[in-house]
Amino acid sequence: MKVIRTSIPDLIIIEPTVFEDERGWFMESFNEKRFHSELKALELPLPKRFVQDNHSCSKKGVLRGLHYQKAPHAQGKLVQVSQGAAFDVAVDIRPESSTYGQWVGVELNSVNKYMFWIPEGFAHGFIALEDNTNFHYKTTGYYSKESEAAIKWNDPTIDIAWPKMPSLNVSVKDCEAPFFSPELVKN
């Protein structure tokens, strides 16, 4: 696997090694020992163990996010797309961070097979670029309804450069999410 640093040092893109021949392809989608070794090499903290896997399927133009969970149920996420394509975004919501309020976006798709590591302290969202986009993510914490929170996906202070789409499909809940502010993300 190859690890690609982003403009926010705690966010990394993982490019798996894919073995391909006339029969198709094979890749190791997760190896905890190797994942931890790569994080250590980058002097990044090791996450808690992954405890939950989630899978969603979205139509083209569906935008989900920006979601996060507050402590004590904060989650790190290892995300990937197995079918279709998505523009995936993580926003630093750690008030003490030098990259507070900044975002990183990466295209995840079934061709590049990239994975995106998003540690605790980040809001997360994505837009499906194709129909039947299958989005998978491992989390370091269990979902907790009482701890769920969101930031408005088109907040002008964050100013995410979402890909242009003919139309967007955003849930009422995500449309009504509050704008980003230091008070919003306090635990």
TrEMBL record:
It catalyses: dTDP-4-dehydro-6-deoxy-alpha-D-glucose = dTDP-4-dehydro-beta-L-rhamnose. It is an enzyme of class 5 (isomerase). InterPro entries: RmlC-like, RmlC-like_jellyroll, RmlC_Cupin_sf. It comes from the Bacteria. The keyword Acyltransferase does not apply. SUPFAM superfamilies: RmlC-like cupins. Keywords: Isomerase. Its EC number is 5.1.3.13. One of its GO terms (molecular function) is dTDP-4-dehydrorhamnose 3,5-epimerase activity. Pathway: Carbohydrate biosynthesis; dTDP-L-rhamnose biosynthesis. PANTHER family: DTDP-6-DEOXY-D-GLUCOSE-3,5 EPIMERASE, THYMIDINE DIPHOSPHO-4-KETO-RHAMNOSE 3,5-EPIMERASE. Belongs to the dTDP-4-dehydrorhamnose 3,5-epimerase family. Homodimer. Catalyzes the epimerization of the C3' and C5'positions of dTDP-6-deoxy-D-xylo-4-hexulose, forming dTDP-6-deoxy-L-lyxo-4-hexulose. This is dTDP-4-dehydrorhamnose 3,5-epimerase. It comes from Pseudomonas paracarnis.
